[in-house]
Specification:
Layout (H helix, E strand, L loop, with lengths): L1 E3 L9 H6 L7 H9 L3 E3 L2 E2 L11 E4 L17 E5 L3 E6 L16 H8 L23 E7 L2 H12 L4 E9 L6 E5 L2 E4 L2 E7 L7 E10 L2 E8 L6 H8 L23 E9 L6 E5 L4 H13 L1
Parallel strand pairs: 7-14
Antiparallel strand pairs: 1-4, 2-3, 2-4, 5-6, 6-7, 8-13, 8-14, 9-12, 10-11, 12-13, 14-15
Length: 300
């Protein structure tokens, strides 16, 4: 990847500049790339504290994912659909999707590796078969590619925005209108690199929502993703003033103690990679979510 320094970033540290180019790149990750020689400025290696000049040409060589032996672990996975190409699984709340350095076990990928050995390798060994992700504390449906042919098809469908992804959520506040669309670009928060926020130069992000039920100080909604950015629903709902209940990162200081955001990926639909037939799946709300709704209805 090449990037030319504009007046906006002239004088800024190179690690800061590069970490703003892609919301998936953390500053510490970028600093390691610079130290390892994966970043060149005008064809030369630099240090992490290099101050960029106007019209500097940056060349960024993103390294392949770090090799990691994924340990197969027997898990009681809830498989909604499976054939030789794809698999649809209902991920429980609290489970991480894929391993990371220092966090090599207990993830959905560990369970999938024990369930079936044939997963696509396009994303490298850290994330075999994983086409899209949902956050640790979000429950719901994920599609998994069992070969590279299926992986490429599913990714192309995500890019073309033809995959149906509907989420159920409980948000703070009483939303007065019945439906709406949030069209606001997302990028990393410069004050907190672990968080996303709405920024002018961020990646295009669109979320549609409709109200299912109003519950006094809360609203039960369905959100449909048009794009799939990191933390998209959580950030977008906060942006319009209705953050997700239980969300430790984007919710208010006083929120519900439910161990993470009340968000469930309930509906997933896509064209089968081989037959091209549209298939759709729906996962019921998890027990904790139903109990929370009932509690809020009683209070209402």
């Amino acid at each position: 990847m090449e990037h030319t320094i504009s007046e906006t970033h002239a004088g800024d540290r190179i690690d800061k500049v590069i970490s703003t180019l892609d919301p998936e790149w953390s500053r510490s990750q970028v600093q390691q790339w610079i130290k390892d020689g994966h970043v060149l400025v005008n064809g030369e290696k630099v240090k992490t504290n290099y101050k960029c000049s106007l019209n500097d040409t940056l060349e960024i060589i993103v390294p392949d994912p770090e090799d990691l032996d994924v340990i197969p672990e027997e898990m009681d996975l809830e498989i909604f659909y499976e054939d030789k190409d794809v698999l649809v699984v209902n991920k429980p709340k609290g489970m991480v999707v894929h391993p990371a350095p220092g966090h090599a076990t207990g993830t959905l990928v560990n369970g999938l590796m024990a369930h079936c050995k044939d997963l696509s390798g396009i994303n490298g060994v850290l994330r075999p078969g994983i086409v899209h992700r949902i956050d640790k504390d979000t429950s719901g449906l994920l599609m998994v590619a069992k070969n590279d042919f299926a992986h490429e098809s599913l990714v192309n469908q995500l890019v073309a925005k033809t995959v149906t992804r509907k989420y159920k959520a409980i948000v703070h506040g009483a939303i007065p209108h019945d439906f709406g669309t949030i069209d606001a670009p997302l990028g990393r928060d410069t004050r907190d690199r672990q968080s996303m926020t709405v920024v002018d130069n961020g990646k295009h992000a669109v979320t549609h929502f409709n109200v299912i039920e109003r519950l006094k100080d809360f609203t039960f909604v369905e959100c449909q993703l048009e794009t799939g950015r990191t933390h998209q629903i959580r950030v977008h709902m906060k942006y319009i003033g209705y953050p997700l209940a239980g969300d430790p990162k984007y919710g208010p200081k006083k929120t519900l103690d439910i161990g993470g955001q009340a968000l469930h990926a309930g509906v997933l639909g896509f064209n089968h990679p081989r037959t091209e037939e549209y298939i759709e799946f729906e996962a019921p709300l998890p027990a904790y979510f139903e109990e929370l709704l009932n509690d809020l209805r009683e209070n209402h």
